[in-house]
Amino acid sequence: DGANIRSRPTVSSDRVGFMRQGIAVDVLEQTREISTGIIWFRVVFALDGATIVGWIRSDTVIQLTACQTLP
Predict the structure, then answer these.
(1) Predicted structure pTM score
(2) How does pLDDT run across 13-59, given as a tens digit for each residue?
(3) Which of 8, 17, 53 is nearest to 35 (CA)?
(4) Which of 25, 42, 50, 65 is found 20 to 30 A from 18 (Cα to Cα)?
(5) Half-sphere CA count of 48, side-chain side, radius 13 A
(6) Are 49 and 38 in contact (CB under 8 A)?
(7) What sign does the CA torsion over 54, 52, 12, 67 have?
(8) From residue 64, how far is each of 13, 31, 46, 48 by CA, in Å?
(9) Which of 18, 64, 66 is nearest to 45 (CA)?
(10) What DSSP character marks residue 58?
(11) CB 41: neighbour CB atoms within 10 A?
(12) Of 44, 38, 49, nearest to 16 (Cα)?
């Protein structure tokens, strides 16, 4: 189980990685997809010695600390 990491905050963008369940990540920023209202997080994490940076849908993760509320 896990979630796709995308190059841009939309499901139609390229997949740049896959985040397995249970991995902790840092959120760099967040945005709301205008057409769907879905919030996306830009994240960074280490996976098998590589640093992965990309976008993940907020509804696929569990937040340990709250991000600022978007307008």
Answers:
(1) 0.85
(2) 999 999 988 888 889 999 999 889 999 999 998 888 889 999 999 99
(3) 8
(4) 65
(5) 4
(6) no
(7) negative
(8) 26, 18, 18, 23
(9) 18
(10) G
(11) 21
(12) 44
Tokens read off for 69: 């509320």
β-bridge pairing 50-57 and 39-47 = antiparallel
Provide CB contacts within 8 A for 2, sequence distance 6+. Answer: 18, 19, 20, 21, 23
Amino acid at 14: D
DSSP string, 27-49: EEEEEE-TTT--EEEEEEEEETT
Query: What amino acid is encoded at 3 in this protein?
Result: A
Nearest CA to 25 among 59, 69, 62? Answer: 62
Distance CA 39, CA 59 (A): 8
Place of tokens 């600022």: 68
